[in-house]
Specification:
With 374 residues, the chain is an alpha+beta fold. The protein has four helices and 23 strands. A hairpin with a 4-residue loop joins strand 22 and strand 23. The protein is rod-shaped and about 145 Å long. The model has no long low-confidence stretch (mean pLDDT 88).
């Protein structure tokens, strides 16, 4: 009889346990690999969603035109943070120009508010952050901005000059700077005038692409429009230079200056407009060789100023009580300054002979007329 050894063909208990252990390890590794892959997928989806939501709030810094950022999202249009995420895809006021999120978010108005695990995003308007609770173990937080003041407390400043780099000087209060910014969902105009040296400044400016209009409210009343890109936590320098001189275009017509009247206490002269249409609203006598004060100003024989209690002398701003018609280009108009007297008040006064008395007048467009009447 031939005896067969069973151990040569059977499986021992130890071998079976080793196989089971190996299979268990492989299954565990497989589950962990699947779980890690699933977590990474959910994490990446959530991170992408949060990034797009933040761009919806404050814009995409990579969108530029002519070297300037032009994308500032909801805050740049509305001048405020939204109360909730829905405002990024649903109209929230007159200045709303959304939607501020990609198409796939707009088409699914519910799921974009949830992270990769199906949890609703937490949004804190006061602290300006978006948060995902993730898988319950690891929290993802993305800040919209470091501090709220970075969004709304920026500034714009600059210098106003003319083509000759000259500031507006004594005419500074007749230069109007209007900055249009968003505030609580509406567009509001903030207005200021520069200092004599041309310096101006706006504070509490929200981020955004804002329009600034600078208007010269004298002479030809020119305007310059400038768009200013305001970034978070910034002090933007926005100098403005007018394409024309602040000094006006009126020129003295040689030989036109003359004195007349019984006492030679009236002066007449003509000016030529060498540039664009000029509008005048005032004048100043900046020089007179005679100590005299006048009572009346006429343009083309129409009274545009007349004294009531005080006559006008050197340095006195004469604001025309009747605004004269615009002076067209290449035209000549006549001015008369009448009744020069030796007393500025309405009391007793005597006529002053203005013959050969040098006169210099500065009109509101900054034209200076300097002559000696005969």
């Amino acid at each position: 009889m031939k005896i067969i050894n069973s151990t040569a063909y059977g499986v021992t208990l130890i071998e079976m346990l080793i196989v089971i252990l190996i299979l268990g390890l492989l299954v565990a590794v497989g589950y962990r690999t699947i779980d890690a892959t699933n977590y990474e997928s959910r994490f990446n989806k959530t991170n992408k969603q949060m990034t797009e939501i933040v761009k919806g709030f404050v814009g995409n810094p990579d969108l530029v035109s002519d070297g300037r950022r032009i994308s500032f999202g909801y805050v740049g249009d509305m001048g405020q943070l939204p109360a909730g995420l829905s405002a990024l895809i649903t109209s929230d006021g007159p200045n709303w120009k959304g939607p501020y999120l990609p198409r796939q978010f707009v088409e699914d108005t519910i799921s974009f508010k949830s992270d990769g695990w199906g949890n609703t995003f937490q949004y804190d308007q006061q602290s300006a952050y978006i948060r995902s609770t993730g898988n319950g173990k690891q929290v993802m937080t993305m800040k919209i901005v470091d501090t709220i003041t970075d969004l709304f407390n920026n500034s714009i400043s600059g210098i106003i000059t003319d083509i000759n780099s000259a500031p507006p000087a004594e005419f500074s209060q007749k230069v109007n700077i209007r900055l249009t910014i968003p505030e609580n969902g509406y567009s509001v105009d903030t207005i200021c005038a520069p200092l004599a040296d041309g310096y101006f400044a706006f504070s509490s400016v929200p981020i955004g692409y804002h329009r600034m209009i600078v208007t010269k409210q004298f002479g030809t009343r020119d305007s310059v429009i400038r768009w200013v890109s305001v970034l978070p936590r910034s002090n933007i320098i926005a100098d403005v230079r007018f394409p024309y001189s602040f000094r006006g275009n009126l020129k003295y017509v040689e030989g036109s200056g003359a004195v007349y009247g019984t006492s030679n206490n009236n002066i007449g002269f003509s000016v030529f407009n060498s540039g664009d249409t000029v509008m005048l609203d005032s004048m100043v006598l900046i020089r007179s060789d005679s100590n005299a004060y006048f009572e009346e100003v006429r343009m083309n024989d129409n009274i545009i100023w007349q004294y009531s209690t005080t006559r006008a002398g050197v340095g006195y701003l004469v604001e025309f009580t009747t605004i004269p018609p615009p002076i067209p280009p290449n035209s000549v108009v006549r001015f008369d300054i009448r009744n020069f007297m030796d007393n500025p008040t309405s009391g007793s006064a005597h006529s002053v002979n203005m013959s050969n008395s040098r006169i210099a007048i500065r009109f509101s467009d900054r034209s200076i007329i300097d002559f000696r009447p005969q």
